[in-house]
Amino acid sequence: MPHRVVVLALDRVIPLDLGIPARVFNEARAPDGTRLYSVTTCSLGGRPVRTHEDYRILVDHDESALEGADTVVLATQEPGATLLSTGAIPPDVAAALARIGPHTRIVSLCTSAFLLAAAGLLDGGRATTHWALCEALARTFPRVEVDPDVLFVDNGRVLTSAGGAAGIDLCLHLVRRDHGAAVASAAARRCVVAPWREGGQAQFIEHPVPQETDRSTSPTRQWALDRLAEPLTLEDLARHAHMSVRTFTRKFRAEVGSSPLKWLAQRRIAHARLLLESTDLPVARIATVCGFGDPVALRKHFHAHVGLPPLAYRRAHSAPEPAVAR
């Protein structure tokens, strides 16, 4: 059975964001082309939904669809004055959210995090939303740890994302979490979008018009990706870019949204994930190929980023067991 995704559309929904889950999840395919997810859209009472724009959308299902979902996605809805001032949601919305099963995965796109917070689903946890409303989310719901500097937050059962394209990143992250990097990358290609960005990247990166003397760090990033197995240092990267360490770090952050070494660690982890899923290389060999040097360092970084040790990740994603003892 495909994984059942149900998208809840409420009045004032952002149309672009409403289409993101179906667009991404419907492109996640098994090797034989079978869709791995089924996507259903519902509304309260199955009524037409007034969008944030100048038109309505007809929906074929009511909120009872939420009861059979494996994952529920709350499409972006801007919080109204009542929600912002009182932290309360209308009774019919609360009743719809109460129909979600206790083990169902719940995802909010952008400012729908306010709805999850009002329902108590974010209490005591970390969350994010559009950077412009992070302060309001933290003020209205002080029991939520709001992180304004990330694209999305994965708390296991409950996930929140920032605005716009971050919803695509989060959906691709879920595909990768469920079925591995290869399936997620193929879905991204079918959607003609870049492969997933890590959730820890910055939401808002300023791109001022460059001076003619400015140089991009892009060639150095590609140079580093071609040399992941080497023990690259910040000085090595700056030297390749023909910049001082300080200038290189500043320009790198402006272009990428994270520090050079954090980005490099994320790329190494991403490569390790792909190798664990698609090869039978021993963990020791993967550690070397990805630049961690030894299996202990790989396990430490992998667990910190992914939440699982390498072998548990390999088993969870049905990659072949390695033939050589570690």
TrEMBL record:
<dbReference type="InterPro" id="IPR009057">
    <property type="entry name" value="Homeodomain-like_sf"/>
</dbReference>
<feature type="domain" description="HTH araC/xylS-type">
    <location>
        <begin position="218"/>
        <end position="316"/>
    </location>
</feature>
<dbReference type="InterPro" id="IPR002818">
    <property type="entry name" value="DJ-1/PfpI"/>
</dbReference>
<dbReference type="InterPro" id="IPR052158">
    <property type="entry name" value="INH-QAR"/>
</dbReference>
<dbReference type="GO" id="GO:0003700">
    <property type="term" value="F:DNA-binding transcription factor activity"/>
</dbReference>
<dbReference type="Pfam" id="PF01965">
    <property type="entry name" value="DJ-1_PfpI"/>
</dbReference>
<dbReference type="GO" id="GO:0043565">
    <property type="term" value="F:sequence-specific DNA binding"/>
</dbReference>
<dbReference type="InterPro" id="IPR029062">
    <property type="entry name" value="Class_I_gatase-like"/>
</dbReference>
<dbReference type="InterPro" id="IPR018060">
    <property type="entry name" value="HTH_AraC"/>
</dbReference>
<dbReference type="Pfam" id="PF12833">
    <property type="entry name" value="HTH_18"/>
</dbReference>
<protein>
    <submittedName>
        <fullName>Helix-turn-helix domain-containing protein</fullName>
    </submittedName>
</protein>
<keyword id="KW-0804">Transcription</keyword>
<keyword id="KW-0805">Transcription regulation</keyword>
